[in-house]
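job 3f2a | input accepted
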Amino acid sequence: MKKVLLFLFTCCTSALFAQVSAIKATQVIQAPVISGSVCGNGFTKLWDNDLGGNMYDLLFATVATDDGGFLLGGSSISLASWEKSEGRIGRDDYWIIKIDANGHKLWDKTLGTANDNFLRSIIKTNDGGFLLGGFSFIDQTKADDFWIIKIDANGNHLWDKFIGSNSNDNFSTMTATNDGGFLLFGTNFYTASGDKTAIGTGEDDFWVVKIDAYGNKIWDKALGGTGSEKLNTVIADTDGGYLLGGYSHSDSSGQKSEACRGNSDYWIVKIDAEGNKIWDKTFGGSGEDGLNSIICTADGKYLLGGYSASEISGDKTGVARGSYDFWVIKVDALGNKIWDKSFGGDNLDMLNSMLPMDDGGYLIGGTSFTSISGDKTEYNRGYCDFWLIKTDAVGNKVWDKTLGGNHIETLVSMLEIGNGNYLLTGTSVSDDSGDKTVPTRGVEDYWAVKINTCQPSNTFCEGKIYTLSATNCAGTITWSTGATTNSIQVNNGGTYTATCTINNETSSVSNSIVVTPNTVNLNGNATNGTNQAVNHITSTQIIPTGINTTYQAGKSISLQGTFHAQMGSVFKAEIKGCE
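job 3f2a | predicted structure (579 res):
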């Protein structure tokens, strides 16, 4: 940045000095730099960090914090060492660690009893704090109870509650409710005792507990068949209800309305805000299938994801690649199956997490023991690795990526953090090797990886989201759309202008972007170059002598009526989608 100072001097013959009559400062503002990108089809690892103590630290939960950082949580048997600043309280303790936007530790806290304590879930609360949920061994009953801890924004303990029966109560997840309370979800034995008033119908059932803002129990519900069920995942629905998911070994019985397909099946249950069942659905093949993740889709439906050991049978239409594969099912708002997809290599692949992407596709993640085979295009780094698959809106694979070190990595959670960026978290046993830049501290540690899925472009496909970023401005950015952020997302072609303002001085720059349409109709005489459509091209063109033209479309190219290529012209048609 340059400053030009202009001095105007007036000479006074009756004085022995010069008087400065005016001083004017002019600031030269450099124009910002605009770069464009389409997010979803690119892949760049931005950073990774290993966080742990001298023993086992197993991550199970990650949430984004209001300051742009993250809170990671799980269970630890480590002493005070490395990133763990406090000693062990019981055999296993809750261990939470706050990191900034670049993965650096800010603080950590250890919370526990004299026994085993296993943290499974973290959610943000309206007061800026967090609720921690898991289970703890109770001496009196010789069994595990739900253990809920409320902490403030700095990790300080505010209150805690034990909720349980006289048998094992295995906590899975939780969600906030509209009245300021919370719903807790897990699995327990069917009998009523302690805090459990709902009587189940089988061995182990889904257990739902409503608590108020201070952890006091309000009601509980049990859901299951005559066999055993395990609850793994829950999402809040737009109608105030909830969709619960896990796996079931039960035939039609109790709250389960459909027969078992194989050894175990996906089981989803829709409940209202009071925990009453609305409907349930079973999905499976002839083998073992387990549901680990549910997400809402942009069209008001659901995507179910987990693992499958089934061949083509029942609801499963894809062949088994290995011993276990990723299995993804799209269902409508009433749980009716729309389509299913299987992904895997020749060994074991276990899906743990899914996210919707801005382009309408999905990011699917889990753990893979597989090298190049089947749907897996990259070598494994060690014994098992993080494995990511990008799909389009109907479940077709777009790309896959493997991340890991020289030993064991297990993917647990994925977070979408804006502008094509994602945080992947799990556990690691590896040295600094492969994609891992920091060695494991003890036996097993938390591992966090930030990735970006954008790639530079000035064109994008109709129906996708395009990201424009303005840099090289030390002041404020104002876009022609009215936005005042450094980056904007657009879905229409045209010219976009970014203006940099410093001390009321401005400088602007514009960038034009082109949209590839879904359908193109061509007529008249062709010209040199490429005509591209996302899906379909229909042409009645004439390709004159000396012209070199190419048609590219993702689904079909239809040459009709007067279309012909004259002698001496070059014409090429390719089924090639817009990327």
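job 3f2a | Confidence is low (pLDDT under 50) at residues 1-26.
job 3f2a | closed
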